[in-house]
Amino acid sequence: MRAAGQLVGRVLQALRAMVEPGITTLEVDRAAEKMIRDAGASPTFKGYNGFPFSICASVNEQVVHGFPSNYQLQEGDIFSIDVGVTLAGFVGDTAATIPVGEVGEDLKQLIRVTEECLQRAIEQCRPGNHLGDIGHAVQSHAEAHGYSVVRDYVGHGIGRRMHEDPQIPNYGKPGKGVKIKKGYVFAIEPMVNMGSLYTKTLKDGWTVVTVDGRPSAHSEHTVAITDEGPEVLTLVRANPAAASQRLVEVA
């Protein structure tokens, strides 16, 4: 799980550096697939329930599951990249919302608060806590800033498959829900809307957008529960050589 997490984290890091006005979301998708396959892994999303791409590419009001396309990113857009890899039988899953060029202060704040929601949720990933503690951490912080959290889509357990039990909502009450135990691994992924919490799916059957057309941001890490607290598997470590060696050992 660490090896898969480090790989997908490095892929997202490289994709983030590609984001600039004029690049197409399909170019980003193709770069992701090449990096993943060159590392001896496979893009988890491609073919998953029929999804035809290696990343989910969601722009502005698109919440999740956006199709990469020939759309050229524009100055002032926000671009959410969600990517998963399967390496040696284990899955890593991560996402981030990236500003394209210079964006407005309102969008910068939306991204920042969404990332803060993720960090607050991760802090609750400790043995003895409950899933409701995770959801409450996200919901309370987002709503304190006047935002809403998406309820139609949730985080999830992850391991040998991308989506495993339990489901992990981004809303909830402290002390409620499944008790968290050592050894669990979660994909925690706040989806925060500037306006309404409600969403709809476009005709392609995948792309989810906000019903009011206002922007949405998405941030995700794969997190292991340990006795010492949460270990963020998709947070790229400072020593890439050590991470590469670990990939070789696992493979």
Would you summarize the structure shown here?
The chain has 251 residues and is α+β, with helices and mostly antiparallel strands. It is built from 5 helices and 15 strands. The protein has helices spanning 2-18, 25-38, 105-123, 131-144, 240-250; strands at residues 42-43, 55-59, 62-64, 78-87, 90-99, 148-149, 155-157, 164-168, 185-188, 191-193, 199-201, 208-210, 216-218, 221-226, 229-232.
Write the layout of secondary structure elements.
Elements: H1 2-18, H2 25-38, E1 42-43, E2 55-59, E3 62-64, E4 78-87, E5 90-99, H3 105-123, H4 131-144, E6 148-149, E7 155-157, E8 164-168, E9 185-188, E10 191-193, E11 199-201, E12 208-210, E13 216-218, E14 221-226, E15 229-232, H5 240-250
Antiparallel strand pairs: 1-4, 2-4, 3-12, 4-5, 6-10, 7-8, 7-9, 9-14, 10-13, 11-12, 14-15
Helix pairs in contact: 1-2, 1-5, 3-4
Task: From the structure above, extract its key features.
alpha+beta, 5 helices, 15 strands, about 30% helix
